[in-house]
Amino acid sequence: MNFRYEEYPFELFSVSHVAAMIVSFGCMIGLFVFRNRLSGSGKGVLKWLIVVLLVLSEALFQIWYFINDQWDVAINLPFQLCSISLYLCTIMLITRNYRIFEISFFASMTGAFIAIVTPELFFGYPHFRYFQFFLAHLAIVLSCLYMVWIEGFILTFRSMVRAFIALNLIAVIVFMVNRLVGANYMFLSHKPYNASPIDYLGEYPYYLLALEGVALILFILLYIPFYLFKNRKSGGNVNT
Questions:
Q1: Neighbours of 53 (CB within 10 A)
Q2: Are 62 and 71 in contact (CB under 8 A)?
Q3: What is the band of 234 on the pLDDT scale with cuts at 50, 70, 90?
Q4: How far apart are CA 97 and CA 204, in angstroms?
Q5: For residues 201 and 221, is the Cβ–Cβ distance under 8 A?
Q6: N or C end: fewer C-beta atoms under 10 angstroms in the chain?
């Protein structure tokens, strides 16, 4: 539970990182495989289990910083993309709100999913932060897949557009917060310190424009399966 980075170094694609990815992808595959085998009560148990994981992971994260006297407005406010996703996903699961689902799905699958593969993480196995990080991001992804595979929610082209607009509006607010508190939420002030795909997108502020394009491409890729599913289901007459 300490903050001594040198005792628990994290290395990208190390054995512990690959193990975390395998477990994460295994859980996603398992959710898909058993999606039609859950009863009504089983669905409820799974939903609330994910909610508990989301809330618990965030609570423990904040408590960890607080008890180590490291809590800082420039670090701990919920303005990272994955933090925003975590809160949205929690509300989404509890309320089953479709508009929140639209934003949550696109934000989570382009943020939390990528974070599992290329995490900005400074503590490796077996530090508390290692487990908390991957648990939180896995819960975010599973909550969105749950809404699709278990609850039967689908996305439309308009969903993608609304989510992209919402994400940009959120980014504007986060940018102003960064200016006020000297933070780097959503990496809008500078690149992550750890190696990440952003390193290939140029220097500040040009990588922000590149991120817009990357986000749009990822949103389109996420929408394609829904488009193909509806196209197949309707025999080619798709109304988006």
A1: 19
A2: yes
A3: low
A4: 36
A5: no
A6: N
Three-state DSSP state, 69: coil
Rounded CA-CA distance 123/230 in Å is: 43
Q: How far is CA 60 from CA 19, 75, 137, 144, 162, in A?
A: 22, 15, 14, 22, 32
pTM over 0.85: yes
Cβ atoms of 20 and 132 closer than 8 Å: no
Residues 6+ apart with CB under 8 A from 183: 73, 74, 75, 77, 79, 177, 189
Length of the chain: 240
The model's pLDDT over 142-187, given as tens digits with 9 standing for 90+, comes to: 999 999 999 999 999 999 999 999 999 999 999 999 999 999 999 9
- Do residues 194 and 12 touch, judged by C-beta distance below 8 A? yes
With tokens 């648990």, the residue in question is 135
Q: Is the separation of the CB atoms in 74 and 114 below 8 Å?
A: no
**Using omega within 30 degrees of 0 as the cis cutoff, is the peptide bond preceding 205 cis?**
yes
Q: Residue 28's closest CA among 111, 148, 130?
A: 148
122 burial level (CB within 10 Å; 0-12, 13-18, 19+): middle
Question: What amino acid is encoded at 202 in this protein?
Answer: G
From residue 131, how far is each of 123, 139, 203 by CA, in Å?
Answer: 9, 12, 32
How many contiguous H segments (helices) and E segments (strands) does the chain have? 8, 0
Q: Which residues contact 116 (CB under 8 A, 6 or more apart)?
A: 20, 21, 24, 134, 137, 138, 141
**Token output for 96:** 């089953």
Cβ contact 118:12 at 8 Å = yes
